[in-house]
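FAQ: What does a multi-protein file look like?

Like this. Sequence, then C-alpha cells, then the next protein.
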Amino acid sequence: MTLEDLLLRLDRIAGGRQAGVLISPEHRAHPRTRRAFTWIMWLLVAELVLGAAAVVFAVAQAAAGESVPFAVWMRTFIVFAMTVTLFYFAWRAARGWRWAYLRLRLFSQIFPVITLVMAAIPGLYPAWMVTEQIVFSLIMIGVADFLTSDHMRMAFAAPKDGEAGDTPA
C-alpha cells in the first residue's frame, strides 16, 4: 500500500461523497490557482508561528510562576490541531480534491467568527490571548478571501449533472 492509497482512504473519511471528485488538470495548473494556494500555505505558516508563539508565551508565564488559565491551554492545543488539519486540507485541495477545498473554505469562514466571539467573552482569556485571537482571525479571513475568489469558486465548482469530475490517476 502506497502513501497515496492511505491518504485516499483518509480522504474518503474526511470527504464523504465528494471524496472522489478531482478538478480538471487545467484548473489545478492554472497560475491563479497555484498562486492562491501559495498564499494560503504562507498564511497557514503564519498561523502556525502565531500558535507556537502563544504556546511559548504561555509556557514562559507558567515557568515564571504566573497562573495560566485552563482556557488558554485548551485554546493553544486546539489552534495547533486545527492548523495541522487546515494544512492537510490545503495540501489536498492544491492537488485538486474538491472535498478538501470545500472543507478549507468552510473552516476558514467559520473559525474567525468563533474565535472573535470567544475573544469577546469578558475574562475568558488574558489580553495577550485576545490579541492573538484577533490576529488569528484576520489571517483566517485572508485565507477565506483567496478561497472565495471568483476564480477559485469556478475552478472548484461542482460537476454538472451527469459528470463525475476527474478521477484519480
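And here is the next protein:
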Amino acid sequence: MNVIENQQLWFDNVLSYRARVEKDSLGDMIRHICDNISVLGLEITDNIVVAVSEETDEPKQTILGVEIIIPVNKPFKSNCHYVFKPHFRLENAVSLKYCGKASDLPKMNKRLCEYALMRQYSPLTGVYFSIKQICGNEVVANAYMGINGNLL
C-alpha cells in the first residue's frame, strides 16, 4: 500500500449531486453524468469526485449513499437536483491510488483508516474518490481522506 501524505483537492465552481445508487451501478451513473452535463450548459473542468456516505445491504443488492462533486466551468443556479458550491477544499489528506471495479471503491475507506490509525492520525473527513478514468465498470481513481496531522 503506497499512501502519499500532505495531499489536497481544490476546486472552484462545483456541482454537487447527492443520490442513492445500487452499488453495481455507480460506474454507470458517473458515466451518465459525464455524457449529459452539457444539457445544463456546463463543462467538466477536472476529475469528478465521489464520496460514499453510507452503504446499506438490502435484499439482493447493496445501496450506496453518494455525493458526486463535479468541477464545472462556471457558476450556476442551484435547483432541486444539483447544488452549486463556489469552492471545494480538502487539505492535509492522505491519498492512495485505486484501479478496479467502481463498486469496490468503498473498500478504500478501510485501507486509509488503517493507515491513519497506524500513523496515529485522526480522520477528519470521509474518503473522497477523484475519478481519473472510467472504462465500463472499471475505474482508476485516487482516494483522499482528510486527517488531523497533530500528535498531542
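Q: Is there any per-entry metadata?
A: Some entries carry free-text notes. For the entry above: The longest strand covers residues 4-22.
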